[in-house]
Automatic annotation (TrEMBL):
One of its GO terms (cellular component) is endomembrane system. It is found in: Vacuole. SUPFAM superfamilies: Calcium-dependent phosphotriesterase. Residues 157-245 form the Strictosidine synthase conserved region domain. Belongs to the strictosidine synthase family. The chain crosses the membrane at residues 7-29. The keyword Signal applies. The keyword 4Fe-4S does not apply. This is Strictosidine synthase conserved region. GO terms for molecular function: hydrolase activity. Keywords: Glycoprotein, Membrane, Signal, Transmembrane, Transmembrane helix, Vacuole.
Length: 369
């Protein structure tokens, strides 16, 4: 069959699939169910923001916050019901075209946030600019690192701080794509992601894990002995041993029931992982082979791509992992997306779970006391 006819045939199949999706939707493409999950996220309280995308949350050493990084390149601070959200910091001085709903590369895009307790400085990953830092008084952030081993940091994603060792660990999700091309990085099949250690004293950065397929979330263990990096398409959580008899080696820590965004450690040393989506028929199909994912990227509009990937039904899933064994301890859901969806992070604090979203102008709080 001539190449042109092959292309037309594929295009026709895609068009037919799109029509079927609109007609029968979730009945065919819906997300898979997870055995043993609790559908309790429907009861979480919503705190609205004036701007989209509070992707990550953290609290300063005084316990104030949370602070969140949002779509327009700023970091906002929650100051309670009376004052609401106030501006704390921003990634870039180029603020002219920054939008509350659409990412502008020149404005930056704050992602994973981590306060350093001893200094009060806020470190964060910017999906365009690299790893950044801003002091306790806020304002314009300064660049910490944007190049590692001679290679540009393209997509700094999430980070954690080892305060004893004065080291920062972070993921660089792709050597080709920035945050705005997140689905390309996810579906292209390229294993160019890296987990990186940055020594604050020597200002030297080195790759500790490479050939990762879109590593997203990253967290340090409570004792600093290992670092976890969530590889999204494979649903694997990789572990790098930073200290101890296995130092310098890596293994698999956990297998997740869906596609991870950020991972956060609890006070007890366990971990919460936010799932962007459960597995769906379309997600399985699109990752059979890299050329399948690339074909969908070229032929489908982003809105349809996201719709299919979510199974036609955006939802919310949070997974708790044992910090000792990597075993799943608990799974919480809003399976129908009635209250929560597109969650990007889960933080456990003072008997509550706090949730961020990479897309929506919402933070959610679930009281577990």
């Amino acid at each position: 069959m001539p190449i042109s006819r092959k292309i037309l045939t594929w295009a026709a199949l895609v068009a037919i699939m799109a029509v079927l999706v609109v007609l029968v939707g979730p009945y065919i493409i819906g997300p898979e169910s997870i055995e043993g999950s609790k559908n309790v996220l429907t009861t979480a309280r919503t705190i609205l923001l004036p701007v989209d995308g509070p992707e990550s949350l953290d609290w300063d050493p005084r316990g104030e916050g949370p602070y969140v990084g949002v779509t327009d390149g700023r970091i906002l601070k929650w100051s309670g019901e009376d004052l609401g959200w106030i501006e704390f910091a921003y990634s870039s001085p180029h603020r002219k075209n920054c939008s509350s709903h659409k990412v502008e590369p020149a404005c930056g895009r704050p992602l994973g946030l981590s306060f350093e307790k001893k200094s009060g400085d806020l470190y964060f990953c910017d999906g365009y600019l690299g790893v950044m830092k801003v002091g306790p008084k806020g304002g314009l952030a300064e660049k910490v690192v944007d190049e590692v081993e001679g290679q540009k940091v393209m997509f700094a994603n999430q980070m954690d701080i080892d305060e004893e060792e004065d080291a920062i660990y972070f993921n660089d999700s792709s050597d080709t794509y920035h945050f705005g091309d997140v689905f390309y990085a996810f579906l292209c099949g390229e294993k160019t992601g890296r987990a990186i250690r940055y020594d604050k004293k020597t200002k030297e950065a080195k790759v500790i894990m490479d050939r990762l397929h879109f590593p997203n979330g990253l967290a340090l263990s409570k004792d600093g002995s290992f670092v976890l990096s969530c590889e999204v398409p494979t649903q694997l959580v990789h572990r790098y041993w930073a200290k101890g008899p296995n130092a310098g080696t890596r293994d698999i820590f956990a297998k997740l029931p869906g596609y991870a965004d950020n991972i956060r450690r609890t006070e007890t040393g366990d971990f919460w992982v936010a799932l962007h989506s459960k597995k769906t028929p379309f997600s399985r199909l699109s990752m059979i082979h890299p050329w399948v994912g690339k074909f969908f990227i070229k032929t489908l509009k982003m809105e349809l791509l996201v719709f299919l990937f979510e199974g036609g039904k955006p939802h919310a899933v949070a997974v708790k992992l044992s910090g000792k064994t990597g075993e799943i301890m608990e799974i919480l859901e809003d399976s129908e997306g009635k209250n929560m969806k597109f969650i990007s992070e889960v933080q456990e604090r003072d008997g509550r779970l706090w949730f961020g979203s990479v897309f929506l102008p919402s933070v959610w709080v679930l009281d577990r006391q």
